[in-house]
Amino acid sequence: MAHQKREGSSADDDCTSKRLKGTDTASETGGSVEASVSQQMDAEARRTCQKESKVPSDKCIPDGEAAANSQVLGEQKMVLTAVEADAAEDKGCRHTMEDTWVVLPDGDAESPGSLRCAHFSIYDGHGGRLAADYAQKHLHQNVIAAGLPRELMDVKAAKKAVIEGFRRTDESLLQESTKGNWQDGATAVCVWILGQTVVVANAGDAKAVLARSISTEGEGVVDETKSQLKAIVLTREHKAIFPQERSRIQKSHFVPPVMVSAGGSVGSNGRLQGRIEVSRAFGDRHFKKVGLIATPDVHSFEVTKKNHFIILGCDGLWGVFGPGDAVEFVQNQLKVLSQ
């Protein structure tokens, strides 16, 4: 079991890692990242001032003057939910560890902005870990460079940047793999927390699961160690055997000026070309011409008091734990830590 602590240092969040205890029942290579959405609010909140028409719209009256100035109608504070995260890994019975992960509570160090940015991801390598290592080093940077919002949240722009970041990462990875004769690939599941918005992306069979309280007790702070939690799967697995992916692999489509086809086939064993189970991944250069792609599914949602934590894990983890079992396991670990 390997464990490494990550702490954030940005003004927007004070992140202290909590250890996610592992299990030795896993029979396959496995990695997981658990990001906890805490109910502690940041001390430093951004302020917006509402003013009457006599006050210029581009000036914000300081707090000390606001109370005495009748021109200020009110003040609204936007608070950010604190984020804590940690990672655990276990290679199981395999000879080498092919999975990598990223725990980055302060994800805007290279591109500062007023919008809080945290990033967490799992890269599940197969046939080696070169592709997983490459994606670990380059994906977040490519997503930032592709236009991930850093000042004002724009969900559409965020999703577009993530998809473009995946494309750029895979394109450069394929160039490196051709030069180095790499044969391996890696699936991915990633989370970006931008302000109070969570953006989730996945390509392959790595999965993200949200633990959400089903309590109906008002809108106050909910104790994540006592509340009854529901497991919500946030991602869709990409396997060649699934109808939607099989159709995409086999379907012809028009790319001007000719009609082309992915040219792939799904064998009787449910694998692409009878060899690889997943239909989306970074790398795997020999399968890119027969339907394997790195385009992710991307979804988003807003953080609420009912959202407690997200578990990111490779297929090795989910081969042992069901979503509900994983949420219960993490909740029990949080109970132990709180005592």
TrEMBL record:
Pfam families named among the record's database cross-references: PP2C
Documented EC number(s): 3.1.3.16
Broad enzyme group: hydrolase
Limits of the PPM-type phosphatase domain: 84-339
GO terms, molecular function: protein serine/threonine phosphatase activity
Ranges of biased composition (kind: Polar residues): 24-41
Keywords, comma-separated and alphabetical: Hydrolase, Protein phosphatase
InterPro entries recorded: PP2C, PPM-type-like_dom_sf, PPM-type_phosphatase-like_dom
Gene3D superfamilies found in the cross-reference section: PPM-type phosphatase domain
Biased composition regions of type Basic and acidic residues, renumbered to the chain: 43-62
Catalytic activity: O-phospho-L-threonyl-[protein] + H2O = L-threonyl-[protein] + phosphate; O-phospho-L-seryl-[protein] + H2O = L-seryl-[protein] + phosphate
Chain spans, region Disordered: 1-64
Entry keyword Transport: no
Protein name stated in the entry: protein-serine/threonine phosphatase
Organism of this sequence: Miscanthus lutarioriparius
